[in-house]
TrEMBL record, chain A:
InterPro entries cross-referenced by the UniProt entry: AAA+_ATPase (IPR003593), ABC_ATPase_HisP-typ (IPR030679), ABC_transporter-like_ATP-bd (IPR003439), ABC_transporter-like_CS (IPR017871), MetN_ABC_transporter-like (IPR050086), P-loop_NTPase (IPR027417)
Molecular function as annotated in GO: ABC-type amino acid transporter activity; ATP binding; ATP hydrolysis activity
Protein name (record): Peptide ABC transporter ATP-binding protein
Pfam family, one: ABC_tran
Domain ABC transporter: 4-238
Keywords carried by this UniProt record: ATP-binding, Nucleotide-binding, Transport
SMART domains in the record: AAA
UniProtKB/TrEMBL annotation, chain B:
PROSITE patterns: ABC_TM1 (PS50928)
UniProt KW Flavoprotein keyword: no
Designated name of the protein: Nickel transporter
InterPro entries: AA_ABC_transptr_permease_3TM, ArtM/GltK/GlnP/TcyL/YhdX-like, MetI-like, MetI-like_sf
Annotated family: Belongs to the binding-protein-dependent transport system permease family. HisMQ subfamily.
Organism (species): Planococcus halotolerans
Domain of life the protein comes from: Bacteria
Keyword Disulfide bond: no
Length: 242, 214
């Protein structure tokens, strides 16, 4: 089943054309890693997938529903699309538990006990059950990001978007977060991951998208894209980082 | 000392009126401020303009002129009739509302955009985001400035004595002219205002300590 279909996506900020023309398809249970130089439009591409950025032109379909059509309820669609941010964006005035339970409590007709039971399961999964009553300010970066993943998972999303989830972390924290993401991928979550972690992309990615200058320059299985890049720009980028 | 003891019951009666006007006006003022801040930040140009004109008009005119306009000006219209206490409450509320709206607007705008993005990405709509994520954080942040404005408004209520409201200042004026002890009475009047405002600041910093350190 096709989870995400992007057709001729364009995005401009004023006169600046960040995404010139992108099309791609993400199938169920696929893990897509998006790589590219900074300023290439890869984060903007990801943020168009749940319309955190207003889409200038083209179409994005989530499970067949066109999110660029204002008739479709974007808030409803977003409940199926979890997102994890580079800067975590936890709610600092709420405990870890409240961060995780807020959205399901407000948006799903579940009682508090059921939501909290689920939240504890998710905190177990990210290894932070004992931090349930802590505030985000008391956590390390890696812990914050794992809470952010649990928060997104609490809505039972069908798709997870990751926007450079390890870029703001100290090196020793990166592993814990990647481990959680790997487990999620093995469980069959459909994932789109913007990342600089080439190791993760090579190991977990079903496909890797190389984005540069507002286009998807090349997309392929990781082995091919990293081992045998076809385009000059892909080669130049990989030679700089590998 | 006798002057003080004799005058004190009258002054405390005035203090009750002052506090009554202050609390009602500050609550209404806060609601006006919240409404105006949300209008100012709404995506609709007309609403932005309404809020901006309101705030500019209040900030650009003296409190006493606003009071005279509402008490004498509006009351001279056939279809409006307010007693002086009501006019006083309305003036303090509107005046505080204009300043509150700027405080609330700045508070909302100071919250990182990532908070809204996280909330919206979970599926919360813009009202739920405002209510559960943005405003609770903004209010914590704006508490010190908010206290400041509340203190200014409390002091502004003393001007209501000009239209004959029997507030603390008015009672003081009456006592001063009845006893011919202006020095003692106005000194006592000042001390009472000081104590009330001091207690108010202590309450505010208690609330701040309880909620802001998160």
């Amino acid at each position: 089943m096709t989870m995400i279909r992007v057709e001729n996506l364009k995005k401009s900020f004023g006169d600046l054309e960040v995404i010139k023309d992108m099309s791609t398809v993400v199938e169920e249970k696929e893990v897509i890693c998006v790589i590219g130089p900074s300023g290439s439009g890869k984060s903007t591409f990801l943020r168009c997938l749940n319309r955190l950025e207003e889409i200038t032109d083209g179409h994005v379909y989530i499970e067949g529903v066109d999110i660029t059509d204002p008739k479709n309820n974007i808030n409803k669609i977003r409940q199926d699309v979890g997102m994890v941010f580079q800067q975590f964006n936890l709610f600092p005035h709420k405990t870890v538990m409240q961060n995780v339970t807020l959205a399901p409590m407000k948006l799903k007709n579940m009682d508090k006990a059921a939501v909290e039971k689920k939240a504890y399961e998710l905190l177990d999964k990210v290894g932070l059950r004992e931090k349930a009553k802590a505030y985000p300010g008391e956590l390390s970066g890696g812990q914050k990001q794992r809470v952010a993943i649990a928060r997104a998972l609490a809505m039972d999303p069908k798709i997870m978007l990751f926007d450079e989830p390890t870029s703001a972390l100290d090196p020793e924290m990166v592993g814990d977060v990647l481990d959680v993401m790997k487990e999620l991928a093995r469980e069959g979550m459909t994932m789109v991951v913007v990342t600089h972690e080439m190791g993760f992309a090579a190991e977990m990615g079903d496909r890797v998208l190389f984005i540069d200058g507002g286009y998807i320059v090349e997309e392929n299985v990781p082995k091919e894209l990293f081992g045998n890049p076809q385009h000059e720009r892909t080669k130049a980028f990989l030679s700089k980082i590998l | 000392m006798d002057t003080w003891i004799n005058a004190l019951p009258y002054l405390l009666e005035g203090l009750q009126i002052t506090l009554y006007i202050f609390f009602i006006a500050i609550i209404i003022g806060f609601l006006i401020g919240l409404l105006m801040a949300l209008l100012r930040l709404s995506p609709f140009k007309i609403l932005n303009w309404i809020a901006k004109i309101f705030v500019d008009a209040i900030r650009g005119t003296p409190f006493i002129v606003q009071l005279f306009f509402i008490y004498f000006g509006l009351n001279s219209l056939d279809f409006i009739s307010m007693d002086n206490t009501t006019a006083g409450i309305v003036t303090v509320a509107i005046n505080a509302g204009a300043y509150f709206s700027e405080i609330i607007r700045a508070g909302i705008q100071s919250i990182d955009k990532g908070q809204t993005e996280a909330a919206r990405s979970l599926g919360l709509n813009s009202t739920q985001n405002m209510r559960h994520i943005i405003l609770p954080q903004a209010f914590r942040r704006m508490l010190p400035t908010f206290t400041n404005q509340a203190i200014i408004s409390l002091k502004d209520t003393s001007l209501l004595s000009v239209i004959g409201v029997a507030d603390l200042t008015q009672e003081g004026r009456i006592q001063a002219s009845a006893t011919f002890q202006a020095f003692e009475i106005y000194l006592l009047l000042g001390i009472i205002y000081f104590i009330v405002i001091y207690l108010l600041s202590m309450l505010a910093s208690f609330v701040e300590r309880k909620f802001v350190l998160r």
